[in-house]
Design brief:
Belongs to the TCF/LEF family. Residues 135-167, 315-421 are annotated as: Disordered. One of its GO terms (molecular function) is RNA polymerase II cis-regulatory region sequence-specific DNA binding. This protein is mainly α. It folds into two domains: 7-168, no CATH class; 255-441, no CATH class. 36% of the residues lie in helices and 3% in strands. The chain contains 14 helices and six strands. The chain has helices at 99-109, 135-142, 152-163, 173-189, 194-207, 210-230, 241-246, 255-267, 285-289, 299-302, 341-356, 363-368, 387-390, 421-441; strands spanning 7-8, 92-93, 131-132, 166-167, 310-311, 316-317. It starts with 6 loop residues before the first strand and ends with a helix. Residues 1-96, 98-124, 134-151, 246-282 and 312-443 have low confidence and may be disordered. The structure holds a DNA duplex.
DNA sequence: AGTGCCGGGGA
DNA sequence: TCCCCGGCACT
């Protein structure tokens, strides 16, 4: 499919997490513009591509607080005169934001709302990474058989859509992590299937320490901030406006069946885990913790999916083993939650998860965990939760509460726990190791 | 396929 | 207001 414009990224971007990246980053010096202006051309799209491999982290590195302290990675773009010189490319451009410095500069000179509606270039001519010409995303709908019967009304709608530049969503924490780690995983696993790679990335994501995850959360948060600065009026809705036309609400009758299936494991007595602290609060995560404590939510809740801690009819929430890493990915609790049982149960499943992650027997498991005795059913199926969780109910191998609490948005609260981290890392290591072991031996 | 985020809309 | 779905972000 060539309906996507390859997103051109700056090769000279310095990621704040650069230390985590083992592969090299290329830096450019002022006066020595990157060669990607003459980048090779995608044979499919005819769109210039970056000459660098996609594994280089392309995120803007500067946080507002550090602006001015870190050498501008785009120094060559921002000459001393204060008159930015931007490269002009035709393709999408997903170096998310030209760093805070550039952003500020462009904001003062070219207010975000001045972004031309018909073009993916800034007024300055800078192709914004997050802007993609709408036509890119139009193709599929255009080619729809149904579109043959499209009315004039629809046509006019499409016209309008075409005029709107497509501003991509800011990357979330996991996406940032994915972009950074994908190449590594690919290299280690000799996997080519993105689905399989993503699975690994998902597991690794859960295996990350709080601190590491917090970095990405913080990054993502900054990206969102920056995004909103650049595009004050931007709404995520813009990104799937096409879907809105046909979107007609479904009924929620399925709920019961769905819910049962979903909670099967949690409703099973043998699976029961310590209930969440506040039994008198039959609320779901959102209601219990509030929006400002999303870090305490279970994974699905944070994804605005069904709460897995809440059991209908029981009037209480539980902290079941994560069906989808929900607890794992649930970032650390806020300081107020430090000693709560919630945290305990969380940390239990959290530490259990990495080893008990649904290990598929198929390609992934075979490739990456050939020695693993665990052969579990597909992930994200609570009913198929690993036996060590479902049978024991809890994992007592670690001290509850030893999990260092921290919120993804407050790095300062992260308290590395010596009692936890090593174990945690070893778990992660146990996961990672097979990846590299397998790399060649399979062939 | 993975997770995070967000808007819409049912309840 | 709560809750959940659908969709997008990337590869």
């Amino acid at each position: 499919m060539s309906n996507k414009v390859p997103v051109v990224q700056h090769p000279h971007h310095v990621h704040p997490l650069t230390p985590l990246i083992t592969y090299s980053n290329e830096h450019f010096t002022p006066g020595n513009p990157p060669p990607h202006l003459q980048a090779d051309v995608d044979p499919k799209t005819g769109i210039p591509r970056p000459p660098h491999p996609p594994d280089i982290s392309p995120y803007y590195p500067l946080s507002p607080g550090t602006v001015g302290q870190i050498p501008h990675p785009l120094g060559w773009l921002v000459p001393q005169q204060g008159q930015p010189v931007y490269p002009i490319t035709t393709g999408g451009f997903r170096h998310p934001y030209p760093t805070a410095l550039t952003v500020n500069a462009s904001m003062s000179r070219f207010p975000p709302h001045m972004v031309p509606p018909h073009h993916s270039l800034h007024t300055t001519g800078i192709p914004h990474p997050a802007i993609v010409t709408p036509t890119v995303k139009q193709e599929s709908s255009q080619s729809d058989v149904g579109s043959l019967h499209s009315s004039k009304h629809q046509d006019s709608k499409k016209e309008e859509e075409k005029k709107k530049p497509h501003i991509k969503k800011p990357l979330n924490a996991f996406m940032l992590y994915m972009k950074e780690m994908r190449a590594k995983v690919v290299a280690e696993c000799t996997l080519k299937e993105s689905a399989a790679i993503n699975q690994i990335l998902g597991r690794r994501w859960h295996a990350l320490s709080r601190e590491e995850q917090a970095k990405y959360y913080e990054l993502a948060r900054k990206e969102r901030q920056l995004h909103m600065q650049l595009y004050p009026g931007w709404s995520a809705r813009d990104n799937y406006v096409r879907g809105y036309g046909k979107k007609k609400k479904r009924k929620r009758e399925k709920q019961a069946g769905e819910s049962n299936e979903h909670n099967e494991c949690y409703l099973n007595p043998c699976l029961s885990l310590p209930p969440i602290a506040d039994l008198s609060a039959p609320k779901k995560c959102r209601a219990r913790f509030g929006l400002d404590q999303q870090n305490n939510w279970c994974g699905p809740c944070r994804r605005k999916k069904k709460c897995i801690r809440y059991i209908q009819g029981e009037g209480s929430c539980v902290s079941p083993p994560s069906s989808d890493g929900s607890l794992l990915d649930s970032p650390p609790s806020s300081p107020t939650m430090l000693d709560s049982p919630t945290r305990d149960s969380n940390s239990q499943s959290e530490q259990t998860q990495p080893l008990s992650l649904s290990l598929k027997p198929e390609p992934l498991a075979r490739l990456c965990m050939p020695q693993s005795p665990l052969t579990e059913s597909p992930a994200r199926k609570p009913s198929n939760l690993p036996a060590n969780i479902c049978q024991n109910g809890t994992d007592h191998s670690h001290q509850p509460g030893s999990l260092p609490p921290s919120t993804p948005y407050s790095l300062s609260t992260a308290q590395p726990s010596t009692s936890f981290l090593p174990t945690h890392r070893s778990l992660a290591g146990a996961q990672l190791q097979p990846l590299s072991l397998v790399t060649k031996s399979l062939e």
